Automatic annotation (TrEMBL):
It is a single-pass membrane protein. The keyword rRNA processing does not apply. InterPro entries: ARM-like (IPR011989), ARM-rpt_dom (IPR006911), ARM-type_fold (IPR016024), Armcx_regulator (IPR051303). It comes from Indicator maculatus. One of its GO terms (cellular component) is mitochondrial outer membrane. This is ARM10 protein. It is found in: Mitochondrion outer membrane. Keywords: Membrane, Mitochondrion, Mitochondrion outer membrane, Transmembrane, Transmembrane helix.
Amino acid sequence: LQKLLHLLQATDDPLIQEQALITLSNSAAFSVNQDIIRNLDGLSIIGGMLSDCAPKVKEKVLNALNNLSMNIKNQEVIQVYIAEVCRNVESAPLNSDLQLAGLRLLTNMSVTSDYHHKMIDSIPCFLRLLSAGTERTQIQVLKVLVNLSANTAMTRHLLRAEV
């Protein structure tokens, strides 16, 4: 895992980045690896790639963060990327794999109400996607909206959102 993280930092080759991220994402399916990746500062290394990479690499970054977000301690680190993930969901092509990867991560990050406030500005986008998206997109958006609606502090934001 450490070598994969070093490889991510050392290369600008999108193909190598994609393969390393896929391997890290698969490794993150095991909880012991989630802790190891966090302890190696892997969340920051992976999350830091969100701002400057090719769309296919960005999708793999989101998939890796999604698998890593199954851990509460990891969520504490990943939450700093929520605003950027929301921007990626909004700017990604409609129904794209990139958009769906971002929505899956937001679904995991919204299971508890700890980070709901970081998604408030994206509620209008979620509602647009619910209207315009394919069934796959709609289902993923609904998961996020259901999680947000479980928090009474979000009621006003959900009901006042302009669509």
